[in-house]
Amino acid sequence: MVPLLITLMLSTACEEIKLEMEKMDAAETATIASTPTTIADIIDSKDLFDEFQNNAVVAIAKYEGQTFRVVGVINKIDYDYNKNPYIEFSREDFFSRSIGFLFTSVKCELSDTMQVANLPVGSKITVKGTFAEWLSYAVLLNPCSVSNP
């Protein structure tokens, strides 16, 4: 009888702790989401990527639904699997140079292919886009367009 009573008490205590932790998580998420943030006029693609790498939860809350400009060097101009044109800025650092592979940092999905007609890979440009998603390897901006600074 005593072991059953102890088991019931422990079970009840665990449920209470679980509920309190869920309340704390909800409060923390609400605090992060409601924290006022300011976004710079123009953000460097490397700095934007670093924000997401350092704390994706805070970065998503900061940029969700926001439209802003990003400056970077074009690494790739191509179509994705759905035949949507995009510009890709890559993050170049010691590790990527040492393995000979540039990691994507920002992917700008375009609606107008004519915007990239005269843009060579390697050129530094500014794009204006709306944060759409964090892909764990890139910040996706959609819609996005080539912009003048």
CATH topology of the largest domain: OB fold (Dihydrolipoamide Acetyltransferase, E2P)
Number of discrete helical segments: 4
Strand order of the largest sheet: 2-3-4-6-5
The total count of strands amounts to: 6
Question: What's the number of domains?
Answer: 2
Low-confidence stretches: 94-102
- Give the CA-based shape: globular
Label the structural class. Answer: alpha/beta
- Which strand-content bin applies to the residues? 25-35%
**How far apart are the termini?**
75 Å
Report the CATH architecture of the largest domain. Beta Barrel
Please trace the helix and strand order, writing H or E for each element: HEHHEEHEEE
For the largest beta-sheet, the strand count, sense and barrel status come to:
5 strands, mixed, barrel
The CATH homologous superfamily of the largest domain is termed: Nucleic acid-binding proteins
Tell me roughly what share of residues is in helical segments. Answer: 25-40%
CATH class of the largest domain: Mainly Beta
Rg calc: 22 Å
Output mean pLDDT.
Answer: 77
Plain-language structure description:
The protein is globular, with a radius of gyration of 22 Å. With 149 residues, it is an alpha/beta fold. 38% of the residues lie in helices and 34% in strands. It has two domains: 1-34; 42-147, OB fold (Dihydrolipoamide Acetyltransferase, E2P), CATH 2.40.50. The chain is built from four helices and six strands. It has a five-stranded mixed beta barrel. α2 crosses α3.
Describe the structure concisely for a colleague:
The protein is of the alpha/beta class. The chain is built from four helices and six strands, in the order H-E-H-H-E-E-H-E-E-E. The protein has two domains: 1-34; 42-147, Beta Barrel (OB fold (Dihydrolipoamide Acetyltransferase, E2P)).
